[in-house]
Amino acid sequence: MIYEIRNEFIVIKSNSIGAELKSIRKTGDIENIEYLWQLNPEIWERQAPLLFPIIGRLKDGEYEYKDKTYNIDIHGFARFKEFKAERISESEISFYLNDDKKTLKVYPFNFRLIINYKLDGANIIKTHIIENKSKTDMFYEVGGHEGYNLSLFEDEKMEDYYIEFPGMEMLETYTADENIMMNREKTSVSLE
């Protein structure tokens, strides 16, 4: 189901499947500009998938935990699951997903995953909350893979846009190969 939240600056739509953003627009924009990628299977068939409980791909699509082998797809299962939604206000919505029989077959942990979207002025605040309901340590990765439209107006090019991280000059990240297999090595990425 598609949900909409808004304030005087922004209106966003999100889907209960995968708690995924589907649209980002300015409130009352007469040009009706869409800021979120709007699906083109020839280029990329996603918009803003949620990555949980892994990010990337595992060798042979499997891992071992407590002497048992589990198979899990690239980026995990959350992006395909139906979340329950709870509207908190006109400008805030929370989605949650609990483990079930299907998730336990590929990820042997009891959990609750909460994705919250809150509009704060012209900002979208997205929060990931992971609750471990198991009696053991729970291993996971979580992330977003939002795609944004660029070249919104005629004669613009990608180089006209930038993302700013105030107060940060460098990021440290793990590397991946061409098959999205994570490496142990890290690399520094300049934010300039």
SSE blueprint:
Elements: E1 2-6, E2 10-15, E3 20-26, E4 50-51, E5 62-65, E6 68-71, E7 84-89, E8 92-98, H1 101-106, E9 111-120, E10 123-132, E11 143-144, E12 170-176, E13 182-190
Antiparallel strand pairs: 1-2, 2-3, 4-11, 5-6, 7-8, 8-9, 9-10, 12-13
Can you tell me about this structure?
This protein has about 190 residues and is mainly beta. The protein contains one helix and 13 strands, in the order E-E-E-E-E-E-E-E-H-E-E-E-E-E. The strands form five sheets. A four-stranded antiparallel β-sheet has the order 7-8-9-10, with no helix packed on it. Strand 1 and strand 2 (about 10-15) form a beta hairpin. The N and C termini lie far apart (about 40 Å). The relative contact order is 0.18. The model has no long low-confidence stretch (mean pLDDT about 95).
Number of helices: 1
SSE series = EEEEEEEEHEEEEE
Distance between the termini: 40 Å
Residues in helix, %: under 10%
Low-confidence stretches: none
Outline the biggest β-sheet: 4 strands, antiparallel
Summing up helix and strand content along with how strands pair, one would put the structural category as mainly beta
Key descriptive features of the protein:
globular, three-stranded antiparallel beta sheet, 192 residues, mainly beta, single chain, four-stranded antiparallel beta sheet
In short:
Strands 7-8-9-10 form a 4-stranded antiparallel beta sheet, with no helix packed on it. It has a 3-stranded antiparallel beta sheet with strand order 1-2-3, with no helix packed on it. Helices cover 3% and strands 41% of the residues.
